Amino acid sequence: MKTNPVELLSPAKNAEYGIAAINFGADSVYIGAPRFGARASAGNSIQDIETLCNYAHRFHSKVFVALNTILFDHELSEAEKMIHRIYEAGADALIIQDMGILEMDLPPISLHASTQANNTHPEQIGFLEKVGFDRVILARELSLSQIQEIRNKTHIELEAFVHGALCVSYSGQCYMSAFIGSRSGNRGECAQPCRLQYNLLDERNTVIERDTHALSLRDMNRGEFLYEMLNAGVTAFKIEGRMKDIGYVKNVTAFYRKKLDKIIANNERYAHASLGHFRFDFEPDPDKTFNRRYSDYFLHNREAGITSKSPKSVGKPIGKVIEVGYNYITINTREKFNNGDGLCFFMPDGKLNGFSVQQSENNRVFTSESINIKIDTLVYRNSDLGFSKLLAATENARFIDIDLHFKETENGFMLSASTTDELYHAESSIEIEKNPARDEKKASETVEQQLRKTGGTSFVINELKIEWGSVWFIPIGELNRLRREALEKLSNLLGTKFNKSEKELHLNNEPYFQDKLDYKANVSNLLSQKFWKRHGVSEIDDAFELSLSNEGCVLMTTKLCLRFEADACPVHRNASNKTYPHSIELNGTMFHLEYDCKACEMKIVK
User: Fold this and answer.
1) Residues whose CB is less than 8 angstroms from the CB of residue 64 and which lie 6 or more positions away in sequence, other chains included
2) Which residues 6+ apart lie within 8 Å of 266 measured at CB?
3) What is the pLDDT of residue 369?
4) Residues 132-153: pLDDT tens digits?
5) pTM for the complete prediction?
6) Positive or negative CA dihedral for 221, 224, 228, 230?
7) Domains in the chain, start-ordered, CATH in brackets?
8) What are the percentages of helix, strand and coil residues in the chain, rounded to 5?
């Protein structure tokens, strides 16, 4: 029996993007609150959140609202009022980092612990479960075995990222942006210092490598490992990308929808988490939208080459150069090109270069200027206009099968519409003078043709049953009104019948497993201090953003290890005698690298 819903969670920059995500396969979407979200530039009005909730609930999809920055004291009152408005708008859960929110007068809304809450080990996650969270969003760095251990020791819902951009630091534990330019990642203002170029220096402060994107990670893609993650205990699969374009949302959501549908179809344990089935007019391909090439990011083990040579989108590899002319190249590929496509390639020094296609003849592409490229260079397409147009032209891929029953009544006609599982049913009727049809065949065909039209809706007619004693003439306008009213009532019914879970928060004094918290706990307000003291913490340092002096603080903690990348790891490589970076430099500022081989982590310290 299918008893375990499998949830696909997609990003929503705004209501329009959220609706697109639902139409292309999302069981739930996450969207920024008007303020205090981890993407400060992606806030949304309460009205837009309500619009998205009303749409999502018709398909029994859910809407989670991100209010996951740390808060300052003067913001607490505004945040509390906002949470109540978010709840009244219909949101299904609140994604938070700041524990001070649990000390507020909250509505009965489900709480999800943001990945910024440092959800890395069973003790932390078990504590969050006991104090009232329904779900934790796991740290991206966790392996399958670590996820399995958390599952074995807790019962809380586990959500994990499967796709999108990667922060090099553990989320919530990065202070580099705040240190460099007073733009705090924990306040939704990250300036993305991990995408900048650094100089790498050895123990003698000699430059090993200049102007390299040493901290810029490839993007995550775990599409081939969803079944393993399910078995390890993940219940919700999250796509990153609240700042990506709508084509990315459609394409990547559809890609994972197809993957999960295949798993659900072949496994009796797993069920769909929302209504409908999907039919795509394109073949989803994440390579064709923004990506920096991919990594599964420590899901199985540590591998070299997880950084990207450029923070820009590389796109899809299409073939190698076999001929170079002044303003053209010939590529060993069967791909077709459009004028305006973007092609790119890496130069011998690792820099990304590219050009726009002006004209193409089979596998030869022309541009307006000379191309500095060598034979055998791998070429990528990072802008595929044909695919982008196909995505833009496709508005909906989600469909709900229904049965229609048209029958004659004493004073007119009635149309009933019901889902094929007969769980949801709606009716519409008209009173009309009955006149015998002059052409019975044509009248019957007209009734069937008009009632089978479902354009503009997500309904697909599975079966249409027509019952009448005689064949009557019915104006097309009346048939259309009958159909529209029945489908609209059924659509509204699906929304009202959505079982929105609500949960009252009951405070407790569950002891935390530490009695002291340093700045990495991100305690930035009095309510947060109150929370931690109630749970037995006696010493609480101010958040990094409130501290007057941050010299010597760890600015990043990351699973990326530049010593490993330099093939000088004493544990995995048995090569401790090789040269490796001891520090990195940005615009004259030096940062020390500390290698914690026991934890298999690297720390960046000023």
Assistant:
1) 9, 28, 29, 30, 31, 91, 92, 93, 94, 95, 112
2) none
3) 87
4) 999 999 999 999 999 999 999 9
5) 0.95
6) positive
7) 4-166+218-288 (3.20.20.380), 314-393 (2.40.10.170), 402-496 (no CATH)
8) 30, 25, 45
State mean pLDDT over 163-186: 94
User: Taking the CB of residue 447, how many other CB atoms lie within 10 A of it?
Assistant: 23
Percentage of the chain beyond pLDDT 90 is 91
| DSSP bridge pairs for 219 | 294
The 328-331 sheet, strands edge to edge: 352-356, 342-346, 378-383, 316-324, 328-331, 364-366, 359-361
Please give the distance of CA 210 from its chain centroid, rounded to a whole number.
Answer: 34
CA 526 vs CA 72, 73, 521, 532, 575: distances in Å:
8, 7, 14, 10, 49
User: What confidence tens digit (pLDDT) does each residue in 261-282 have?
Assistant: 999 999 999 999 999 999 999 9
Say what the pLDDT of residue 182 is.
87
Per residue in 468-526, pLDDT tens?
989 999 999 999 999 999 999 999 999 999 988 889 999 999 999 999 999 999 999 99
Burial of 120 (0-12, 13-18, 19+ CB in 10 A): buried
Q: CA 220, 32, 87, 160: dihedral to nearest 10 degrees?
A: 10
**Cα gap 486→31, rounded to integer Å:** 32
- What's the rounded Cα separation, in Å, for the pair 480 and 131? 54
Three-state secondary structure call for residue 604: strand
Strand 342-346, strand 328-331: pairing: unpaired
Give the CB-side neighbour count of residue 71, counting CA atoms within 13 A: 27
CA distances from 327 to 152, 342, 353, 368, 372 (A): 60, 15, 15, 6, 9
